[in-house]
Task: structure prediction
Amino acid sequence: MRLIKLITPALVILTLACEVAQLTYNNPLDVEDTAAPALVFRPNAIETSVGGSAVFEVFAVQVTGVSGIHTQISYDNSQLGVTNVSPGDFFDDATQAPMFFTVPANPSTATGTLDIYYFFLGDGLTKDGTGAVATVIFNTKVSATSTLEFTAESEFVDPDDLAIQINSLGQGTVTAQ
Result:
């Protein structure tokens, strides 16, 4: 009886160990080196109900020498509305508080744009790496799949206000049922 108690767990472990796990990697922050620096949404897809919320973080990925970020997000104004925008922690600094402001879409236009500005003032401070630029909460208005896109107006700048090339602009989707 004692031998059966020892063999049973071993057989269960061996049986389970023979299964090959199918792992999927879908982290929007994992961009190819050739696609960096980049702007991405995390998560890159959300499913919710009509009237529900979709919370996206906007991330700057693998940036170097950045002192200012402007992101312009395009979306269908008839399907989504912006409920709230709050700053991320990318430019958190003990010596200087960054500036953060947004310009919301005109509600009377079909294509909505949300402009987010996040930057240091003066004295040449810069940041390197990957970090959250903002958190954006969208509310869904109708049953549809909506696309969020960073426009070509989005930019990273250095302390002299010179553009730093963005190699990849991510997309996000909101599906409301």
Q: What stands out?
A: The helical segments are 2-17. The two ends are 56 Å apart (CA to CA).
